Amino acid sequence: MTDLPKRVQINEEGPREGFQIEKTAIPTQRKIQLIDALSQTGLKQIQVVSYVNPQRVPGMADADEVVAGFTRQPGVRYTALWLNKTGFLRAVAAGKLDVSGTLSLTASERFLARNQGRTLAENIAAQHEMATLYKMNKVPVRRASVMSAFGCNYQGDVGVADVLDQVRQLLEIAQQHEFRIEVLSLADTMGWATPLAVKRLVGAVRERHPELAVALHLHDTRGMGIANAYAGLEMGVSIFDAAVAGLGGCPFAANKGAAGNVCTEDLVFMLHEMGIETGVDLDRLIEVAFLAEDIVGRPLPGSVKAGGALDVLRKRVKEARQ
Amino acid sequence: MTDLPKRVQINEEGPREGFQIEKTAIPTQRKIQLIDALSQTGLKQIQVVSYVNPQRVPGMADADEVVAGFTRQPGVRYTALWLNKTGFLRAVAAGKLDVSGTLSLTASERFLARNQGRTLAENIAAQHEMATLYKMNKVPVRRASVMSAFGCNYQGDVGVADVLDQVRQLLEIAQQHEFRIEVLSLADTMGWATPLAVKRLVGAVRERHPELAVALHLHDTRGMGIANAYAGLEMGVSIFDAAVAGLGGCPFAANKGAAGNVCTEDLVFMLHEMGIETGVDLDRLIEVAFLAEDIVGRPLPGSVKAGGALDVLRKRVKEARQ
User: Fold this and answer.
1) Measuring CA to CA, which residue among A182, A104, A107 is closest to residue A148?
2) Are residues A114 and B320 in contact, defined by beta-carbon separation less than 8 angstroms?
3) Model's pTM, two decimal places?
4) Chain A residues with CB-CB distance to B274 below 8 A
5) B105, B123 in Cβ contact below 8 A?
6) Exposed end of chain B (fewer CB within 10 Å): N or C?
7) SS3 A47
8) CA–CA separation, B152 and A231 (whole Å)
9) Residue of A194, A263, A317 lying closest to B223 (CB–CB)
10) Is B203 on the interface with A (CB under 8 A)?
11) What backbone torsions phi and psi does residue A12 show, to the nearest 5 degrees?
């Protein structure tokens, strides 16, 4: 009926996505507590901080302390986000992270202007600079990313042809620096995607570039996150970014509210119930979702932590029958 | 790529699903206000009350007053729920509702025992009694329903074969009373469904009974509601129950919380963005979602009311370019 993947890789982005948006200051120790708790769930990749300008993102001012403080677990990759040379060099200097480079473009000129103060041409030039820097530092580059690949609050709808053009440029940049891109991440940065749009775009990308694994970075701004992930699965996507408890969003901020990534435990729940492996212990992950809620001090949007996992109920039913 | 329906019918159940679960008493006038507001959105069917025992469901004690109070709009069907003869006769006596009968079974023996105090055999007998009653009152019966068709908190997983057996029995009951079932509703009463389970069950039902239109009643207990609706669409389902703002749930009640139906405005958003007509004015519906939140006095789970519709942004982008 459908050709779903047997196994899915989840890149947990809760610590980074979540803490950069929270308005009240979160103590460094509690950020570390969350990362260490996530490390015990079976998640294989955790993005712990972004090295960005603390003037612009005060919630990440303690990035160095957070990275210094968490305890590495074997088998887990710990990543960070940066947007420029300064950030990258901080990540390298930390000496504790799994540093790899991502080449990133955005299909939306206007978002680029607002988010990073760059034109499309300047952004391409910046990617060349970063690629040169990665080469010099012997940092691998296997991943390319297209931001706002489905639509943009400042630009409107983004067409499949525009995204394919960004992908072409990303691959050209990689080739010039002798990097081989293996994973292409499509980001629904502002929550414009629907399942049908996911199918169309992923289908077009896979048809043009069958050699690339497609990853999805889905924001749940309009409640489509899980449905979009399912549509991705049906198109063979097996790599997803997600944030525990849906960290990163502000569900009660009406139209002003950004929303977080698709919720990790809801995604894991769906995958496991459909027989798809993740390596994650769902019960432990739900406990971490409650911890995340306790840390930010407000209700977070994840549903499975409220509704409960089904294996608990199955066990109860079985016991009642004995 | 997929064979999605061109048009979807939505049965709004917010007033019934929502007000029967709220713990604090909602004034009758505000219930009427919500129904009248929903009547202005383009929704073609609204379930306004359930005629149930006020001892068991205090929130529905004023059902007669609510029905007396709302203003019928042309082109809108106003329905009610009942579980027995007393309830049905109250619905008929109201003289204002679109009364039609539904034959209903449940795949879960244990849920039946807890919810209605009946065995499977007693439930079949009860459906025969109701069918006789409908016949006597010249009430049409075109719809049959299987409750907890995907799983049950008291019974565990429900197999496709069990549901097909319930469907067979429903059709036999209908036939004996010379009713022709046109719509089969599959209810995920306790939020056990995943998109894959929806595809399997709807596929099996449609293969066995191609003459039946399938409707889905999806609870969003574990955040799968919209994804399950999408999976249903891909299987040709074009009738959905939904509740404005996700009314009926209690998202912050941890494991004790039931959750409401899939949220109407989130569903309408997805449908419109995928080019599927509903006849609903999304902007008006979002306003009603805020009204619902105001009426129950707590945040409700719908996402689009927080994230905002996209047509507003498209218009803004277009104006900025002129």
Assistant:
1) A107
2) no
3) 0.95
4) 194-197
5) yes
6) C
7) strand
8) 26
9) A263
10) yes
11) -75, 125
CA distance A110 to A103: 19
Q: Which residues fall within 8 angstroms of residue A134, CB to CB, at 6 or more apart?
A: A88, A101, A140, A141, A177, A179
For the beta carbon of residue B178, count every other beta carbon within 10 angstroms.
9
Residues B38/B12, Cβ–Cβ less than 8 Å = yes
Instruction: Residue A317: list chain B partners with CB under 8 A.
Output: 153-156
Residues 96-125 of B with CB under 8 A from A: none
Say how far apart CA A20 and CA A14 lie, in whole Å. Answer: 10
Cβ-Cβ contacts under 8 Å, B260 against chain A: none
CB contact under 8 Å between A259 and B303, yes or no, is yes
Longest dimension (CA), chain A: 68
Reading the block at residue A15, the tokens are 């610590």
Contacts of A257 in chain B (CB under 8 A): 306-307
Between CA B269 and CA B276 the distance in angstroms is 10
- Beta bridge partners, B78, equal B46
Read off the pLDDT of residues B234-281 as tens digits, 9 standing for 90 and up.
Answer: 999 999 999 999 998 644 433 344 578 999 999 999 999 999 999 999
R_g of chain B computed on alpha carbons:
19
Q: Does B322 touch chain A (CB under 8 A)?
A: no
Q: How confident is the model at residue B85 (pLDDT cuts 50, 70, 90)?
A: very high
CA distance B108 to B208: 21
A152 is catalytic: no
Helices B225-234 and B264-273, interaxial angle, to 10°? 40
Q: Tell me, yes or no, if A62 comes closer than 8 A to chain B by beta carbon.
A: no
Q: Which amino acid, residue B32?
A: I
Pairwise CB contact (< 8 Å): B194 & A221 = no
Of the candidates A114, A98, A120, the residue with the CA atom closest to the CA atom of residue A48: A98
Most confident of the following: A53-57, B18-22, B269-273, B308-312: B269-273
Look up the ipTM and state it: 0.95
Task: Find the catalytic residue in B198, B250, B282, B296.
Answer: B250
Question: Measured between CB atoms, does A129 come within 8 Å of chain B?
Answer: no
Select from B229, B268, B299, B246 the least CA-distant residue to A257: B299
Residue A254 confidence class, pLDDT cut points 50, 70, 90? very low
The whole-angstrom separation of Cα B32 and Cα B37 is 8
> How far apart (Å, rounded) are the C-alpha atoms in residues B125 and B128?
5
Determine the Cα–Cα distance for residues B266 and B302; give it in Å rounded to an integer. 7
Of A201, A200, A135, A146, nearest to A170 (Cα)? A146
Question: Nearest-CA neighbor of A34 among A248, A310, A201, A303?
Answer: A248
> Among B222, B227, B257, whose Cβ lies nearest the Cβ of A227?
B227
Distance CA A113, CA A109 (A): 6
* Identity of the residue in A194, A275, A303 whose CB atom sits nearest the CB atom of B273: A194
